[in-house]
Amino acid sequence: MFDAFSSYSGMLLIIIFSAVFGFIYQFVLRSWFYFSDRNVKFVRGMPLLGSTFKSVIGLEPSAISFRRLYEYFPKEKFIGIYDFGGRPSYLIRDPDLIKQLIVTDCDHFISNKLAIKNENDYFSQTLFGMCGSLFGKWSGMEYTTNLLFSTNKMPMMHELMVKITEQFIETLKRTDKIAKIFDSRDLFTRYTNDIIAKTAFDVEMNSLNGIDNEFYNAGSALNECRYVDGLKFLASLNFPSIIKTLDVFGAKEKHISTLRKFLGKTIEARTNKKSDRNNLIDLLIQARNGKLECNNSDDKIDIGFATTVELTTSKPKDEIQECTDDDIALQCVAFYLSTLSSVSQIACFMFHELALNPDIQDKLYAEINSVKNDLNGSSITYEIIPKMKYLDMVLCETLRRWCPIPFLERTCISPYVLETNGEKCIELQIDNGIFIPTYGLQMDEKYFPKPMKFNPERFSEENKGSIQTGTYLPFGIGTRNSIGSRFMIITIKTLVFHLLSEFYVDKSYKTPDPLKLKALPLLMDAEKGFFIELRRRNPDRTPYESQVFT
Fold it and tell me: Are 169 and 346 in contact (CB under 8 A)?
């Protein structure tokens, strides 16, 4: 009996040792000398946790980690790094090389790490995660979604934005007639929620009046910027089977399910009812039925310097006609969550900067007031907003200083030779990752002097022409850039126009100054939150005098 027990214990130890050794080899030893063998300068970081390990374990924001990597070898056009999980990847530092890889040779990097793990999970079924066998459906979804933000549809959408924004301002006026401190995150999340619900789904939410509903509560919970959520998401990309077994996303999946069911009912009602709204749901249903028509105009209105260029040129593939109601609901959920997060985040940073820079706010208010006087009581239109140059300058500088996407990632899907003027010749292998340190580039003094200073003049008509392509990427570049950047920009500009027309934005005792970023592995957020003080303006006084209460 003792011999049998000893034999069993010995076998168990061998199995455990083999499993541990296999794990160490797979994620540490196999790629330990990957870059040194290729004579590429690299930053090793920590085994398994990668080169950005400080952000992974919650010691610093991912934006700072990637900026640090960007500054390690300032003379190199690219360096080697390890991502979370130990995958050998390349950090691209050179703007021309970025354009070559992500735009010119984008067919080699059409995928990203988010899109290659599991074609059966929720994220891989959305526009942001489709790849592999789902690529045909992705191209169709991308084409259809881009139509929502085309020149001939945005003006109609903007009319709805204006109505909701005017209601938003009236709600703020009723809260108090003196200065009041607001939690910017909550305030702008509610605003964005109602904008998206009405313009993309034609659903009235009214969360601006403090009316919580199932849809808003689910979106708000999913929009929370918590370290543990970012870590779970990273872990799910590298260890999907383990994460699925542990069911660490149970709570999040319940919220996603709530949104899917809510939108599913809307889609079912629209399927058998003709609608001329041309919102996202209607467009996806039309595409599925093979009745989608493109009436895009070639002379698109330039609504901002930061708008990404849409590279989609072909009509959707047949795969989109195989979409179910649930597939459409998933696309709507993904669009809702990404836009809700981005717009509310950008608005928080922008109004934070306006509160800390009263001279910039006064100059912006002067432009807004001039346009408002010209309107003579009429509502602002989609065509007028692009003419407000200083508003665009302030938004562009916000997107530079507080980049909504601190880094971009792509995965190599076919062998590619990486060349830099003949100096180096590296063959990228399938599944190699490439990272673009967006925040590092936009905070590089070589491209943007005194990068810590908030200076909208960088984007004046005289100066923005000197900004090098590939150094300013707030919404990404090439394929898989940020779908809906046009929607986000026009939403934020509409909000700023109306809010500054009626209120002076000031910092309060709760406003962080200087603002410190929260240690998150993915997104950017303020460590101590966003808080602003709003004061009613008096239209009969100068911008400075209008700071007093009415």
Answer: no
433-436 vs 425-428, strand pairing mode: unpaired
Contact 441, 473 (CB under 8 A): yes
Mark out the alpha helices in 272-324 (DSSP H runs): 280-288
Q: Which of 218, 315, 226 lies closest to 262, judged by CA?
A: 218
Residue 486 near residue 475 (C-beta atoms within 8 A)? no
Is residue 366 predicted with pLDDT exceeding 70?
yes
Quickly list H helices, 409-530: 438-442, 485-502
Burial 95-108 (b: 16+ CB within 10 A, else e): bebbbbbbbeebeb
Tell me how crowded residue 197 is: count the other CB atoms within 10 A of its CB: 25
Whole-angstrom distance, CA of residue 223 vs CA of residue 213: 15
What pTM does this model have?
Answer: 0.85
Cβ–Cβ under 8 Å, residues 315 and 294: yes
Decide if 62 contacts 407 (C-beta within 8 A).
Answer: yes
Domains and CATH numbers, the chain: 128-407+439-547 (1.10.630.10)
The token pair at 328 is 């459409």
Q: How far is it, in rounded angstroms, from Cα 176 to Cα 355?
A: 19
Counting Cα atoms < 13 Å in the Cβ hemisphere of 418 gives: 28
| Other residues' Cβ atoms within 10 Å of the Cβ of residue 258 | 18
Strand partners, 534: 180, 505
CB proximity list for 305: less than 8 A, separation 6 or greater: 392, 396, 459, 464
Query: Rounded to whole angstroms, how far apart are CA atoms 464 and 448?
Result: 11
Residue 142 has pLDDT above 70, yes or no: no
Question: How far apart (Å, rounded) are the C-alpha atoms in residues 515 and 349?
Answer: 10
* Selection from 341, 347, 338, 345 nearest residue 480 by Cα: 338
Instruction: Give the DSSP H/E element, type plus range, for residue 20.
Output: helix 2-27
Alpha-carbon 352 to chain mean position = 19
Copy the structure tokens of residue 389. Answer: 């140059």
What would the pLDDT profile of 529-540 be if each residue is shown by its tens digit? 999 999 998 654
Q: Give the integer Cα–Cα distance in Å for 529 and 224.
A: 11
Name the 3-class secondary structure at 15.
Answer: helix
Phi, psi of 418 (to 5 degrees): -95, 110
pLDDT tens profile 438-468: 999 999 999 999 999 999 999 999 998 899 9
Extract the tokens encoding 464: 């923005």
CA angle 516, 521, 527 (to 5 degrees): 20
d(CA 483, CA 487): 9
